[in-house]
């Protein structure tokens, strides 16, 4: 039996393109162009996958996500938006969205996500974020697919215990991303220590990390706590 998919978007051109393409790939697809209609249909629990725009009309894709999950916890909800932000990405992660796509995207990219959703085996989910953890992060702005990908990575890594390596040229905001991960993590109430390794000479690493006592070396005029 073909996997049933519901596509919700008030942009008829996008909804038609997406639904037609997925039908050619063997999926059974229904379409809703109205947010309220989409909300009601998604709440029926009949669909294994729901693909919805976030900004529809009076109803948002986040509301549809919540309704679909309430009706069928194992539903894979894929959110689309041309105005992605940190706030909506965090809310999507917290609500259990399967994936979050920034428009415009390639149909092949969407198909890959749909295929992953179809194949996904039931398993333990990542810890949900608490509502108070959904505030937009400082000065991080941008709606492009690349920025949405950054937001998604921040949201996911923040809940992990793994060490995270952030790469990028000078000035792109690596420390801002590090602070965002810290602020959304279970360690948010603990101190965040930033160290510019490029500004520390080899002989000062020990004192920077572990502190030093007054008189330990030239210029040490007071006791100093380390990072």
How is this fold's topology laid out?
Layout: E1 4-8, H1 12-24, E2 28-32, H2 35-42, E3 49-53, H3 61-71, E4 76-81, H4 86-95, E5 99-102, H5 107-119, H6 145-157, H7 174-183, H8 205-210
Parallel strand pairs: 1-2, 1-3, 3-4, 4-5
Helix pairs in contact: 2-3, 3-4, 4-6
What does this entry look like structurally?
- This protein has eight helices and five strands; from the N terminus they run E-H-E-H-E-H-E-H-E-H-H-H-H.
- Helix content is 37%, strand content 11%.
- About 8% of the residues have low confidence.
- With 227 residues, it is α/β, with parallel strands linked by helices.
- Strands 2-1-3-4-5 form a five-stranded parallel beta sheet, with helices on both faces.
- The N and C termini lie far apart (59 Å).
Number of β-strand runs: 5
Rounded average pLDDT: 83
Distance between the termini: 59 Å
Residues in helices, as a percent range: 25-40%
What low-confidence regions span 5 or more consecutive residues with pLDDT below 50? Answer: 121-138
Instruction: Give the DSSP E fraction (strand runs of 2 or more residues).
Output: 5-15%
- What string gives the helices and strands in order? EHEHEHEHEHHHH
Arrangement of strands in the largest sheet: 2-1-3-4-5
From the helix content, strand content and strand pairing, which structural class follows?
alpha/beta
Short summary:
The chain has helices at residues 12-24, 35-42, 61-71, 86-95, 107-119, 145-157, 174-183, 205-210; strands at 4-8, 28-32, 49-53, 76-81, 99-102.
């Amino acid at each position: 039996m073909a996997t049933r998919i519901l596509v919700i978007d008030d942009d008829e051109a996008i909804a038609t393109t997406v639904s037609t393409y997925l039908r050619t790939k063997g999926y059974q697809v229904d379409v809703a162009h109205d947010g309220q209609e989409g909300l009601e249909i998604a709440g029926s629990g009949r669909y294994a996958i729901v693909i919805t725009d976030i900004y529809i009309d009076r109803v948002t894709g986040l509301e549809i996500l919540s309704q679909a999950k309430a009706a069928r916890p194992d539903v894979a909800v894929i959110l689309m938006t041309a105005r992605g932000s940190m706030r909506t990405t965090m809310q999507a992660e917290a609500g259990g969205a399967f994936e979050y796509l920034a428009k415009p995207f390639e149909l092949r990219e969407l198909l890959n996500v749909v295929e992953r959703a179809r194949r996904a085996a039931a398993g333990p989910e990542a810890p949900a974020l608490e509502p108070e953890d959904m505030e937009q992060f400082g000065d991080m702005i941008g709606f492009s697919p690349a920025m949405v990908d950054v937001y998604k990575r921040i949201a996911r890594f923040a809940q992990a215990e793994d060490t995270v390596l952030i790469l990028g040229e000078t000035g792109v905001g690596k420390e801002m991303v590090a602070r965002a991960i810290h602020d959304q993590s279970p360690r948010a109430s603990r101190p965040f220590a930033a160290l510019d390794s490029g500004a520390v000479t080899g002989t000062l690493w020990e004192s920077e990390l572990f502190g030093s006592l007054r008189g330990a070396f030239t210029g040490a005029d007071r006791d100093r706590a380390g990072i």
